[in-house]
Structure formats: structure tokens, C-alpha cells
Amino acid sequence: MAIDLTQLKALREETGAGVMDVRRALESSNGDVEKARAWIRENAIKTAEKKADRETKEGAIVTYIHNTGKVGAVVALTCETDFVARTDDFKTLGREVAMQVASMDPQSVDELLAQPYIRDAKTSIKDLIKQTSGKVGENIVVKEFKRLTI
Asked: Coiled coil where (predicted)?
């Protein structure tokens, strides 16, 4: 099957996946963009699961303060290298996890990981982290968090 380059480029920009992964996704789905997105998401999760036992010594402390100024969260998110910790994907993930903590008030990391993501109830926080992990190619771990309220 011939791959439409505009489709390939658009899907790559949307997902951040590599060119060959996008090509494989489009080929395996016979050009169906929705199926290709699902393939990329599943592939990222599988890739992340392979890296789950790697040590995470780098990372960032990420914060989120709700616009009312009365609820906030601090999250310690770790990864393997400082290079990944500085990427937009990692920073965005940290902010989304902190927002999740502020809005859903989980009591433990395990509870947080099991929660449905506030922006997409079909995706758990664990899967959101795995998707980003697969995209950046490193293990990502939520070490701890704290929710603050007034």
C-alpha cells in the first residue's frame, strides 16, 4: 500500500512518533488514521513496559496551581536522563499529572496511577505515563506528590 505523505506528516506531528513507526502504523491499518493512532498508542505502551525496570535518577519537580489559587499540587516525576527531563513532552506530562492530583486528590501513587485521566476517561494515568515514556524512550516514574488546599 502506498502511504500518503501528507497523512504521514500530519500523524507524526500529532503523535510525536518516529517516521518509521508512523509508516508502520499506516501500513498495518491500511491508511485508516484512527487505527494508526491506536497502533501508535499501543506500541508506545509496549515500548514503555520494556523499559519499566530501568533506574530513574533524573527528573523534575512539577507544580500546578488551580486558577482559584486555593488548590495546588507538587509532583516529583523522574526519568533516566536530564535530557528527557528538559523536553516539552516530559514537562507537559508533569503538569498533567499535577493537575490530576489537584483535581482528584489521590491518597497514594498507586491510586493516582489507577485513576482515569481527567481529560480522557478512557485512559488511566498509568497509560498516559506509558504513552509519554514510549514517546521519549525512557522509563518515567511518579516518585511522590503532595496536594495542598486552603
From this structure: none
Helix or strand (DSSP H, E) at 145: strand 141-149
- Written as tens digits, the pLDDT of the chain (150 aa) is 567 677 777 777 777 677 777 787 877 787 777 888 788 777 776 776 666 677 889 999 999 999 999 999 999 999 999 999 999 999 999 999 999 999 999 999 999 999 999 999 998 999 999 888 888 888 999 999 999 999
Q: E-strand spans in 66-118? A: 71-79, 116-117
Phi and psi at residue 129, in whole multiples of 5°?
-65, -40
Phi then psi for residue 18, to 5 deg, are -70, 160
C-alpha to C-alpha distance for 135 and 93, rounded to whole angstroms: 11
Half-sphere exposure of residue 32: CA atoms within 13 angstroms, side-chain side: 7
Domains, the chain, ordered by start? 5-50 (1.10.8.10), 58-149 (3.30.479.20)
Q: For residues 34 and 105, is the Cβ–Cβ distance under 8 A?
A: no
